[in-house]
Design a protein that fits this description.
With 494 residues, the chain is of the alpha/beta class. The protein is 36% helix and 20% strand. A 7-stranded mixed sheet has the order 16-17-15-14-20-21-22. A 5-stranded mixed sheet has the order 3-2-1-5-13, sandwiched between helices. A two-stranded antiparallel ribbon has the order 4-7.
Length: 494
């Protein structure tokens, strides 16, 4: 008995197949093999063609099936994780009307800011728990004003995961968790955020039907089964945005538990049991995967757009040709904490919510042409990313959240000893690393949604912890000094 999970990212689409009994991943694959392209017609814009996601999903599915050689009749459920805050528009024939405006696109910032001002901060924050900001609803408002010919043809709007579920099954639906990340869920009224829809002039008919996060949300159609080489009728029983799903994959469900990821973007995600929000909407609150009418489980999300994308940019443009990330880490490790005075602000991937939607760009401070080298740049980049995490975590702590332990997958930036040690050193938190990822988490979520697992404890009892990184108290003053220097440059930039 197997469970199939998909993770629809902006860099790639990954598929993972797990044995439902042992909990072990038996095969996985991702496509494309190099980072997926992003369409950027103008500065601050970021789009992707949903058809590309589907093509990558097909390629990854084919590889997983070829590796595992299982009987596809034994796949009992499918789960979907997806890049958050994207906008997909389809017509009445379920055809995509324009490329998806994805999470790091900042064109909708003025629309969200205007709505926040005109509707009132108290109303938005008490109902949405956030400013309308640069989220899906505001992106649709941009389409309405700038592409009226597209807007007039819309039958339904979807998040990326909703689109993939529609392609698999033909059914169009969404979840409360998904609507909350789109700024379309009213937590105070516990219903669709009609006041924001009315303000933007968005018909409620655009919103798909709403189903629980863990539930049957459609079944694989016969045509798609032939296209993918799997069995028809497999139920889709779970979907969630990548950060709630990352928390699920790390067994983070309850208040006080923290998950983190550091791929293209970086995230610290903590579960809160009380309805709360940041007055400046610098960190955001969404419905977690196990949020219900009777049990508040809210995910407080700190997102840094410029994380792994900064490290990869440096590898492509500054590092020696052909160097590997481990080799870059080795060079950076020869440099002392604080990068001998270099500070890097990693905000070069669009507007940052933590900075109140300002688009400051990436900047490097303190370079001395006589003493600094590529290795200093390598270390300063990783430290700058960590320090941006620490800056946002201070905001989360002001909301009453505690951060004693951070759960993370052993992947992306968390593969770097410098990144891990710096994060532990600055935050004072232990870092627990697990052998999991978003696609594996989505597969386990599917097992919960299908009733194969009777509880989250049963679903995650085989989760493998690889290592624990403890903060080194002896180095705390050095990390703190470097962080304070970094903050002074940030404040000057702002």
């Amino acid at each position: 008995m197997y469970l199939l999970g998909y993770d629809i990212g902006s860099s790639s689409v990954k598929a993972s197949l797990i044995d439902a009994v042992s909990g072990q991943c038996i095969s996985s694959a991702f496509n494309p093999k190099s980072e997926a392209g992003i369409i950027a017609v103008r500065q601050g814009w970021a789009e992707q063609d949903p058809e590309d996601w589907w093509r990558y999903l097909k390629q990854s599915t084919a590889e997983v099936l070829a590796q595992s050689r299982i009987d596809t009749n034994d796949i009992k459920a499918i789960g979907i994780s997806y890049q958050m805050h994207g906008l997909v528009c389809v017509d009445k024939h379920k055809q995509v009307l324009r490329p998806s405006i994805i999470w790091c696109d900042s064109r909708a910032v003025p629309y969200g800011e205007k709505a926040f001002e005109e509707l009132g901060s108290e109303r938005c924050l008490s109902h949405l728990l956030n400013s309308p900001g640069n989220f899906t609803a505001s992106k649709l408002a941009w389409v309405k004003e700038n592409e009226p010919e597209v807007f007039e043809q819309i039958d339904k709007i979807m998040l990326p995961g909703d689109y993939i579920a529609m392609r698999l099954s033909g059914d169009v639906c969404t979840t409360v968790s998904g609507l909350s990340e789109a700024m379309l869920w009213d937590f105070k009224e516990n219903k669709l955020a009609n006041f924001l829809l009315d303000y933007y002039g968005i018909p409620t008919l655009f919103i798909p039907s709403i189903l629980p996060t863990f539930s049957e949300q459609g079944r694989v159609s016969k045509a798609v089964a032939r296209e993918l080489g799997i069995s028809a009728g497999i139920p889709i029983t779970y979907r969630a945005g990548d950060q709630p799903n990352n928390a699920l994959s790390l067994n983070v469900f309850n208040p006080g538990e923290i998950a983190s990821t550091a791929g293209t973007s970086g995230v610290v995600y903590g579960v809160n049991g009380e309805v709360n929000y940041d007055p400046k909407s610098r960190v955001n609150t969404f419905a977690h995967v196990n949020h219900t009418d009777t049990q508040n489980r809210l995910g407080v999300l700190l997102c840094i757009n410029g994380t792994g994308i900064l490290n990869s940019w440096i590898k492509r443009n500054i590092a020696p040709e052909g160097i590997t990330y481990p080799a870059m880490n080795e060079m950076a490790a020869r440099i002392t904490i604080g990068s001998e005075g270099i500070c890097m602000l990693p905000f070069g991937n669009g507007a940052e919510r933590m900075l109140q939607n300002k688009e400051t760009g990436c900047s490097v401070h303190g370079i001395n042409f006589n003493t600094h080298s590529k290795a200093h740049i390598f270390r300063a980049a990783q430290e700058g990313i960590v320090f941006s995490f620490a800056y946002g975590m201070e905001i989360m702590q002001q909301m009453g959240m505690t951060m004693h332990t951070i759960h993370a997958g052993h992947a992306n930036m968390f593969l770097s000893p410098i990144f891990r040690d710096t994060l532990a050193g600055v935050s004072g938190a232990s870092i627990e690393l697990y052998n999991t990822d978003g696609a594996i988490g989505a597969a386990r979520g599917a097992g919960i949604g299908a009733g194969i697992y009777k509880s989250t404890d049963e679903a995650f009892e085989k989760l493998e912890r690889i290592a624990v990184v403890e903060p080194d108290e002896r180095l705390k003053p050095q990390y703190e000094e470097a962080y304070q220097r970094w903050k002074s440059f940030l404040q000057h930039t702002l």
